[in-house]
Please model this.
Amino acid sequence: MNARRVNEIFITWALLVAATTTLFFWSPGLDVFNLPKTGVLLIGSLGCLGGAFYLIKYNGLARQVGLGIYALAILFYLIQIFFGPAGLERTLWGNYSRANGAVSYLSIIILSTTVLVSARLANINRVFQILLATLTANVIYGYLQLSGNDFVDWINPYNPIIGTLGNPNFSSSILGLTSLATLLYAAFANTSNYLRTSLAALAVSGILLAYLTDSIQGPISFAVGLAIALLGSLWISNKRAIFYPLSALVIVSGTFLIYSMYGYGPLGGSLFQYTLKLRFRYWQAAIEMMQNYPWLGVGVDSYGEYFRRSKPLALILSNGPELMTNNAHSTPFQLGATLGIPFFLLYVGLQIYVIVRFVKAFRNPSDSAKPLLALFSVWVAFQLQSLISLDQLGLSIWGWVLGAAIIGLSFDGAAVVAPPTVKGPKKTERTKEVPPAFLKPGIAIGAIVGLMIALVPIRADLAMKAAMETPWSQENETSKQTRLANLMAAIKPLEHDPTYVSQAITEVYKMGKIEEGLALAKAGAALHQESFDSQYMVVDMLEQNQRWSEALPYRKRTTELDPMNWNVWMAYARNLENTGDKAGAKIALNKVLEFTNDPKFIADAKNSLIRLGS
Model:
């Protein structure tokens, strides 16, 4: 009986960590949303490791295929830590405002492994109950934001419903997923009609809020998941005569819908989604990265550094050379680009294994059929949005956890532990299940260690913000020196991240400290040679001050990092001309003509070539 209690504690802990990851943010920081979520994941995963002895003791190492996949994923991240191209600090913590580093994903994998091992029919309702709690919090906060009563004064250019994930698209997605889970829980839970109605009403309010974000991700994922659930319920009811034709209709309709959203077919004009075509180009860039860096990828959370040299020419011609993104806007392609083809195949293989386990368990419905179907429907909804969306930690955690829960529950089947009964007139005594004495202390100790580690980057982030907010005035040289010293001290532990470095350089430039800012920028450019922005922070200031010779090597590097950007080639040609290299300037101008379709740049390049004697 202790095994049941141990599993209940572990799955509850892992799911609470997942919900907290979705809901927690820290507005006093610079990275408000993602770095705090990394901290939550680290605390939760080390808590799991703190009590792992008991998880293994009471469950053994069954479910070996799933455990093997997760073990390989951990191995791949360890290889990235020791040999990855992004460098140790960047690999561990990821990029500013994304934080999809090895620490985050190793934590997610550990939490998923915990759910995989501990998931049972007796405790699977915990998944839906905690998703219900997550929905409740998001609905309350979302309607506060919609009504203008947000307790945080965001600088928000988007729709006001950014939720706890910082973006209307993410908010729409989590509302769609949690609304679906709550509605399905209301359908299969053994509870009163009053509670069922209340849960359904909450789900409706959630999906309505998702619609009000002006993002289609939540409503579409909700609709697809609901369709899967309805088809599955026909299978459970043995209504195969309806199941097969309706399934075919859903597949054809879904294909037609996707086709229309890309602008094709009779409904293409009304359903066309421009951003989908844009994301398709982002995926092309990711595939280019996978081809050029097949084994280890471009490095953890480093898609942005390689996007400029990997994006297709069609994207540049249609949207201009300055279009930039630091994410593939598709979880599988993002992981493949940054971690390599082997990890991409492993991730795809994990999703296929989830489907295989579901089909095997669902083919002959048992007591677990309804919760298993509900889990699978929400998981499919997640996978749909993850194909066209960023791997945001507060969302990504649920894809991994739900997949693990499906695998775990698929092995449990109809096994239900029934409480013992005593015959005769004596009153039945219920034996209280007491967990092992050191289980909860072990989890607590692990969580405390996780908190201590998580505070390191969070404190550095807070120190950087404090330095940026140091009061100063142009008339007071002492205040500028004090602020400069604070910025230089604060950036030291964050120098692995080019975005933090760029923020510090910008603040130094604002104070008129050009030489100090250039020194910092040059150090950043040397440290982040693959970062276009790091090179640009140097060359822009040098060119503004007409220091052409000094700027030349940095400008040349920008042409290597963004080789199809005619703005960059035009600036390089100007630098070369100003340093007396007319032959080099002609080559650069011909590069402009090679790529650009902009009439102004074509005319400028031709006029410059004429002036140079071509």
Residues 439-468 form the longest helix (30 residues). Residues 414-429 have pLDDT under 50 and may be disordered. The two ends are 87 Å apart (CA to CA). Residues 129 and 182 are 8 Å apart (CA to CA).
